[in-house]
Amino acid sequence: GVDCQGRSRMCCRQEFFVDFREIGWHDWIIQPEGYAMNFCAGYCPLHVAGMPGIAASFHTSVLSLLQASTAAGSTGGGSCCVPTVRRPLSLLYYDRDSNIVKTDIPDMVVEACGCS
Amino acid sequence: GAAPRADRQCPACGELALDVESHRELLLNLAKRRILDQLRLSQRPTLGRPVSRAALRAALQRLRGPPQGPLPEADGGQEYDIISFAETGLCNTTQTRLDFHFSSDSSAGGLEVQQARLMFFVQLPPNTSCTLKVRVLELSPRDTNLTSATQHLLEVDDSGWHQLRLGPEAQTACSLGHLALELAPEGQAAWSPVILAGAAHRPFVAARVRVGGRHRVRRR
Question: Does the interface ipTM go beyond 0.90?
Fold first, then answer.
């Protein structure tokens, strides 16, 4: 996948870190210190549709363009920039009875984006 | 369909990446909502009784011990490890009463306790040993305790941390939100072992809980 840089236009991963101290949650969340709520954004032209990340090789792009032109008549919907790799968020926190709770929340952190 | 309105562009389907700084508040609230939803919490917890760093450190060090054997296969639902510190009640020379509270914040699907073990620190005079009786108290509807038939005997032959794997009655009590235990020496020991309850030696129950799983129907 590709990380968004500046005014990136193609499908990429936008990093966004939430510091629990900044939002006043550091008193009840023991670990970690924050949450990387990354998200996917950007264009997905048809010829890169279906690419796991858009770092596609030139050859693949040409092949895809040919496919796209021959299938120009197809009325397929747009291709979207979506997560292709995600990992869990492990949290250690206090609940309202001051018990310590540890849990892994699946698929909470986006590691890479690609075109659907 | 029709092109989405400019103020409702979905960044995933082909529009410019969201300008993070001008949407910071929106994104922070989104992150809060997402974490609370995943933890099945309606709002962030307000802490009743703060836990000392010493108790937190001691408990986490104990939990790093050997894994507690295989768990039933995961059948959906979110798994949690919960450490519940004791509220030490009657602490007289022969009996120690320990109360543990498990909040049922995650009411969706109910708590399914898969494993629970009691961890406590005993002070013994040198070169002595004793048998400790641990009773699981059943709470009657009016929350007055009745001692139940369930009890465990535990040989204690040195000072230090000891652990006891709790049975289904205790697990059920945890699922219902309140577990009450009573520790007393078995027989007429010349002296009584001391269950420490100071900051770094606070007794606790470590439970492996699943919430929202599909409870397996046990086929006979």
Answer: no
